[in-house]
Amino acid sequence: MPKPHILYILWSFIILSLLRLQLNTGRLTRIQELETNTENLKNENYTKYMNPEFDKVYINYVKKHNKIIANLLASSNNSSELPKVVVVRPDMHSGFGNRMPGIICGFLYSLISDRLFFIDGYQNFDNYFEKDFDHNWDTVSYLYRGSTAKDLHVNETINNFTLVTRGNFSSEEINSYDILRVHTWDYVCAPLSSNPYYKEWFNKIIPDYRIFTTISLRLLRLHPDLKSQVEEYANNNFSDYNIGIHLRERKTKNDTNSLMIPIGHYYEAVRMLMLEVKNKNVSIFVAADTTDGRNKLVNLLSEEFKSNNIYHNNNNSVKIIHSEDNMDLNNTITWENSGTEAGAIIDLKLLGLCDDLVLTYASSFGFLAAGWSHKASRQRGLLIINPIKKVWTDNLQVIDKVWMWGAISSEPCMYMSKLLITNEDEETTRIFKSNPLWIHYSQCHYPIEPYKKSKKS
Ligand SMILES: Nc1nc2c(ncn2[C@@H]2O[C@H](COP(=O)(O)OP(=O)(O)OP(=O)(O)O)[C@@H](O)[C@H]2O)c(=O)[nH]1
Ligand SMILES: *[C@@H]1O[C@H](CO)[C@@H](O)[C@H](O)[C@H]1NC(C)=O
Ligand SMILES: *[C@@H]1O[C@H](CO)[C@@H](O)[C@H](O)[C@H]1NC(C)=O
Ligand SMILES: *[C@@H]1O[C@H](CO)[C@@H](O)[C@H](O)[C@H]1NC(C)=O
Ligand SMILES: *[C@@H]1O[C@H](CO)[C@@H](O)[C@H](O)[C@H]1NC(C)=O
Ligand SMILES: *[C@@H]1O[C@H](CO)[C@@H](O)[C@H](O)[C@H]1NC(C)=O
Ligand SMILES: *[C@@H]1O[C@H](CO)[C@@H](O)[C@H](O)[C@H]1NC(C)=O
Ligand SMILES: *[C@@H]1O[C@H](CO)[C@@H](O)[C@H](O)[C@H]1NC(C)=O
Ligand SMILES: *[C@@H]1O[C@H](CO)[C@@H](O)[C@H](O)[C@H]1NC(C)=O
Ligand SMILES: *[C@@H]1O[C@H](CO)[C@@H](O)[C@H](O)[C@H]1NC(C)=O
Ligand SMILES: *[C@@H]1O[C@H](CO)[C@@H](O)[C@H](O)[C@H]1NC(C)=O
Ligand SMILES: *[C@@H]1O[C@H](CO)[C@@H](O)[C@H](O)[C@H]1NC(C)=O
Ligand SMILES: [Mg+2]
């Protein structure tokens, strides 16, 4: 009697160990696969941003998603229980700076609420990005025709910031909805990292608050064709130290109220950065939304650094570079912007490989480049230049409304945080401000005056 019992225990132990080994190796291979898939561009020791805690969460999510969807789509499965989902619908007529933040937020919501993540209506996503799982809403949307949905974000006036800042996404009420919908231009999930229900999760999984960077480097990996173009460009043109500039000129309608950033402001910021650089080969990468503006800035910088080897006796070599995108083309997907989708995404990624960034308050494109960055672990944040009104002269010696700030983080900002602070109840505002980055999140984008709702109390 005891003998077979012991044998049985031993046998079970061996089987279990084997199973565990298999599970572990399966998982390791998957992690390694993902690691080699990460964009380790240029010199990987300098450009890599890793978050192993998040990677585990991500890998488990990918497995879960693939398994559930395979079951769901299996014709033999007549389960009436549909998996709960988050669906993000990006505004394809806006640019990357306004499309990507909602996608990152939607994925974050799906992780913390244990839902599946989908993107609705991103045509040609697969031409630009590499996917680990199928998040195309078209794959399953037909199953959800009779489903209940709650809108978390609709537009600038409709956002449930109370829920994001201090609600429980697993409450019975939220759980009663099959679909949580996200439609936004903004990095509207920033207040989630203040939410008491999720503090512990963030402390464990993304303790450095580089939420956008952590998620975007996994979820939005460049398509291999674009990635190789970026790599080739960086290998050929980048130096030991790279300064990236994003010049935004075609911001709004051509009227006297629209904003502009005098090109001289970018130039001054670069001169300041260069004062610190010694004995280095430097590249200055210029991304711009107009050919004309880019040429002007390139000329200005080339003139400044024409001695090429010596700048204020700092013994640097300096070259000014830019990638070729035909900015005279009209972008057929976004309405008001020029260039191509591929050109824009290459510029974004190259900016993200730079050691320092000079951006403007007027464009979320630049903020996005900083967030989607492999240099996120650098200490210094980006330099942000304020635009001025077009009626003012762009003569730096004359105007006095010039300002610039160096950010504390590479995370994108949330321009609606001003609305949150102005319009939400005091408790929501107070909790939002418990986040160490709340000031950073709030200091961005062109200074739209927040409209006032009657403040709830
Ligand atoms: N290639 C390239 N395209 C750019 C550049 N700057 C802007 N664009 C194009 O213009 C679009 C700008 O839209 P967003 O990325 O949303 O940035 P934004 O400046 O905040 O735009 P709005 O909020 O719509 O005013 C980008 O997606 C690109 O298509 C640039 O430096 N290089
Ligand atoms: C990168 O770092 C690893 C270990 O930290 C080192 O072995 C390797 O040589 C480094 N590679 C480069 C290109 O510096
Ligand atoms: C059917 O799909 C649901 C949702 O993915 C899953 O929970 C369930 O186990 C599946 N049932 C079968 C028999 O595969
Ligand atoms: C699923 O439903 C269809 C019809 O709705 C039925 O023909 C089929 O037998 C069901 N399959 C299972 C496994 O219950
Ligand atoms: C926001 O969406 C609501 C509902 O669709 C609509 O009534 C409202 O006009 C929109 N507001 C803005 C500023 O677009
Ligand atoms: C936000 O969501 C919470 C939880 O679902 C709900 O109680 C509240 O009414 C919502 N607020 C708004 C303004 O929709
Ligand atoms: C959120 O609500 C659910 C359902 O009531 C509960 O089980 C869960 O513990 C709550 N989450 C936290 C972090 O309190
Ligand atoms: C940058 O590299 C590309 C190859 O990727 C090359 O064609 C181009 O001339 C280089 N540009 C500059 C300004 O050095
Ligand atoms: C904007 O308007 C000014 C004055 O009306 C004009 O001189 C200028 O060419 C216009 N710029 C563009 C880009 O249309
Ligand atoms: C800059 O690059 C040149 C050749 O590419 C090299 O000879 C020189 O040593 C480099 N200077 C520094 C400071 O790295
Ligand atoms: C300037 O750089 C060269 C090589 O990059 C180096 O040999 C030389 O010592 C440097 N000069 C000074 C003054 O640092
Ligand atoms: C691009 O669009 C503008 C209007 O938005 C138009 O004036 C211009 O001719 C277009 N250019 C091309 C090359 O189609
Ligand atoms: Mg924008």
Q: What are its keywords?
A:
2 domains, Rossmann fold, 4-stranded parallel beta sheet, single chain, binds magnesium ion, binds 2-acetamido-2-deoxy-beta-D-glucopyranose
Overall domain count? 2
Radius of gyration: 24 Å
The major sheet is characterized as: 6 strands, mixed
Shape: globular
Report strand order across the widest sheet: 10-9-7-11-12-14
- Counted by DSSP, the helix tally is 17
Number of E-state strands: 14
- The chain-level structural class is alpha/beta
Question: How widely separated are the two ends?
Answer: 73 Å
Helix proportion of residues, in percent? 40-55%
Keywords: Signal
GO molecular function: alpha-(1->6)-fucosyltransferase activity
Protein name: Fucosyltransferase
Signal peptide: 1-26
